[in-house]
Amino acid sequence: MRRLLTNFIFFLTIMVINHGAVAACIGFMPGPNDSDPETSAVKHALGQSDAVFIGSVTSQDYVPVSPERDSKEMLVITMSTSTWWKGEDIRTVRLKTSNYKYPNGTSSSEAHEYYFKVGATYLIYANAFQDGLGTSVCSRTRRIENATNDLVILNVLKSG
User: Fold this and answer.
1) What's the mean per-residue pLDDT of the chain?
2) Which residues span the domain enclosing 102?
3) The CATH number of the domain where 136 resides is what?
4) pLDDT for 102-111, tens place per residue?
């Protein structure tokens, strides 16, 4: 019985450690001599992103991943954009996600998935994802009301 309990605790410990490693994001770490870590973090995020813009969520819809009849469906976030700092200045963006619905009624999503609210506005740091754009909680993407510092820094960087 004691051996069974020891094995169970060992197994549980491994599962917790592995889950934490999979779900963790590796973020930007400013250097020890960095006089303005916030500006450095925004510069880094801007450099690592394929697109940076302000977007308001207009809809969230599941769309077929392929034209096959019983294909899984991906959640796509449609946004109306206003200001762009990087990327193609287009008025409507469809962000692809890792949220899927399957024909058997089940669904799946990634631990790092960013969840959006229809009607809310966001500062988006996006990267190429499945022939489009996507973002995650590992990026600096955030609600616009929580992005004041980033917006100031992005505007200063844009002005030269």
Assistant:
1) 83
2) 38-159
3) 2.40.50.120
4) 989 898 988 7
